[in-house]
Design brief:
43% of the residues lie in helices and 23% in strands. It has 168 residues and is of the alpha/beta class.
Length: 168
Amino acid sequence: MENKLIFLSQEWIHEVTKVVQAARIGDEEFKRMTSNFSLNLLYKISGLPAGLRQLYLGKDEICFFIKLEKGSVKKLQIGTNVPNEKIDFTVSSNYDVAKRIFTGELNLATAFFNQQFKVEPQSRLYRNPRFAARAIVVGNRIFKIARQVPTHFLSDEIVSADQMHKNV
């Protein structure tokens, strides 16, 4: 049976980063698409299931920060605090929306237009629609690549001490 990593755990984030970075090396189209793409993004995910709250000190919300410079991941951080970094955009959603976007059940553009997640400052998106469109295209491609990581999604199940920092 294939080991699966818990969605949004530290280990899962690390593995997704490795897969995306490897895709930049081996996939010329993805490399070209991201080569001039830079962004500091904070994604706040609330409404965590009980098992994830256990992993994050009982908090109901986590902050996922990614710093992309010309398509390369320069910093990746997940935890309960907002990092002390310049942030271009803050995206907020609940766990269910994040899960549905990751699995491909919900498209980023659809979720955005249906206001299933919030982007701040929204005015910057409207001032630069080309960047917004490119961010959605790149984001969808990153999610597609990230789906290669075997992933386990928690519901309100409680995670045992053995599962907390290991594969499911």
